[in-house]
Amino acid sequence: MMNKAAIKAVTFDLWDTVLIDDSDEPKRKAQGLAPKPVERRNLVQQFLERHEPILRELVDLAYDTADAAFRQVWYGQNVTWTVRQRLSVLLKGLKRNLPKPEFDELVRLHEDMELSVRPDLAPNIANVLSSLQGKYKTGVISDAIFSPGRALRQLLADYDILKYFSSFVFSDEIGCAKPNAVVFQAAAKDIGVTPAEIVHIGDRELKDIEGPHAIGARAVLCTVVKDRCSENTKADAICSSFRDLPGILERLNKN
Fold it and tell me: CA nearest 10: which of 184, 136, 127, 113?
């Protein structure tokens, strides 16, 4: 059905839209650091062995199980457990505990891992965000996997693009994840527009296309970083280069 409302706001997913997921891994390798999944397991083992030895095979199994449970809840219930929740489940599975200060530090090291070695920005994203200023309100709608909203804001600030966004909806802060309608409705309310006045941009069909469509917003599939599903997408448009985004938004505004 044709949506005739004028576009007043543009919201962006972060991972593989604004930020290139795992683009920090080559940087970590160049610095002699373990890949993030390995380093997370290293941290758990190191903290637990301050108190009592533990087999690495048990740590790996517990971590893999916690990760599988996280994905089940993320996709099945549209909730992203916080790092604290994930590590709590992991430790309970191992029947182990850590003193609160140590557990807090373990959580922080997980959450800040992508701040110490940062992922790259998607090509031309800073330029397009600058060009949208004054034409549309812009916001972020992002699921938080390991980096919470706090760390994601810091990443955007480090790249000097935080200033372009007036609204932030992160799954760890709102308590649910895309495509839950609550996420997109919260963004609309925070920005001060109706859902029909929003265009959301992201790389996942279920979360970034079907989610906004369900509340009457428009959606653009972003294939700038990774093309996950463009052949069968129901998106209102496809953006393969952020240089094209202003023109895409103008065309959508005429429909």
Answer: 136
